[in-house]
Amino acid sequence: MLEAREAVRRLKEYHPPLGGRVGLRLDFNENTVGCSPRVLERLRQLQFEHLARYPERESVERQIAAHLGVGCAGLLLTNGVDEAIHLVCETYLEPGDEVLIVVPTFSMYEIYAAATGAQAITIPAGPEFRYPTDEVLARISPRTRLIAVANPNNPTGAVVARSDLLRILRAAPDAAVLVDEAYFDFYGESLLAEAAGCPNLFVARTFSKAYGLAGLRIGVLVGSAAQMAMVRRVGSPYNVNAVALACLPEALADQDYVRQYVAEVRQGREQLEQELRSLKLRFWPSQANFVLMYIGERHDAFVRAMRERGILVRDRSRDPGCDGCVRISVGSKPQTERLIVALREAVRATVPNGVSA
Question: Are 182 and 154 in contact (CB under 8 A)?
Fold first, then answer.
């Protein structure tokens, strides 16, 4: 009888909601107003030959490299950040290797790593979800081949100081250090400038969040030219589809649109955090386009109450250290105002006596 590899049979399963998401979607950290109108116009211009031929990505990669200020040899467009993670794991991990991951964080680091037969070493975040740099440094061993860091982190919105990331890079020269900057646009600090000269650093970015292209599945992985040559060996030459390649330059060209949306999200994030203070609800300050809050044992009822009011939020109680927590994405100014009205009502309906952490 045919069986999957043992590493695959033992994998944790990731089950995001894939249907029935009706209402204001503040559950997946997506762009809530959509992509630039320039992208929509480019879609209308596509002809049959764009879909009938295999996609050509080199010219788009040159444009992205120029925008990011990196060399083309050190850059690869990917099918979202998910594929970037997958490619790094496939390039550097073998059965018996160790991967260091601070939890809670994005689930796919552990899943892609474990699929290779490597062992995921999970390290709990520190108090208030702070990154435990000293604990990570203490766990580095000759078997450590990958350290994955989301910066800002999902689902907490916490960040790792640049100096701490550089300490980790220096302490683990034989390990790939993947810094996932999916939420960079809402934070503004990056390690991208270090990638070309640091042979064990990889930086991933996405165009799903601020740019509103989640449905097109396009991201980018940056590293040293020598290491990226190895990563390309395990990737498909046609991993990014032709529609995404046609639209990405237009999205990139409309920086005014991106800046305006990011500014609204940042303002909305502050507004949401202030409202949570007023409601005396515990939350963790975020540098991303979402806020993690603590509801307690009534978290299920709160999520349902928000859905009844036409707003989807994400229950994160199953994440390590997140029991009773709910994550709320932030959108435009009108959406944030609508969110706050619903939030007040849902809190009154489900936790009328307040929440104790």
Answer: yes
DSSP reduced 3-state for 212: coil
pLDDT of 21: 86
Decide which of 3.10.20.30, 3.40.190.10, 3.30.40.10, 3.40.640.10 is the CATH code for 37-253: 3.40.640.10
- The 8-class DSSP code of residue 105 comes to S
Write the pLDDT tens digit of every residue in 5-60: 999 999 888 877 667 788 999 999 999 999 999 999 999 999 998 899 999 999 99
For residue 16, the model assigns a pLDDT of 75
Which residues touch 314 (CB under 8 Å, ≥6 apart)?
A: 27, 28, 155, 303, 326, 327, 328, 329
Cα–Cα dist 189/251, whole Å: 21
Residue 357 has pLDDT above 60, yes or no: no
How far is CA 63 from each of CA 41, 150, 270, 301, rounded to the nearest angstrom?
19, 25, 34, 47
User: Which two structure tokens, joined as six digits, stand for 88?
Assistant: 């790094």
Give the integer Cα–Cα distance in Å for 341 and 357: 23
Mean pLDDT of the chain: 96
Strands 176-180 and 290-294: unpaired
Rounded CA gap, 268 and 26, in Å?
A: 12
Number of H helices, E strands in the chain: 13, 13
- H/E segment holding residue 86: helix 80-92
**Domains of the chain: which residue ranges?**
17-31+256-350, 37-253
Digit-coded pLDDT (tens) for 242-289: 999 999 999 999 999 999 999 999 999 999 999 999 999 999 999 999
pTM summary value: 0.96
| CATH code for the domain defined by 17-31+256-350 | 3.90.1150.10
Cα–Cα distance measured from residue 291 to residue 189, given in angstroms and rounded to the nearest whole number: 19
Mean pLDDT of 296-318: 97
Looking at the DSSP assignment, which residues form a beta bridge with residue 99?
A: 120, 146
Q: Which residues contact 334 (CB under 8 A, 6 or more apart)?
A: none
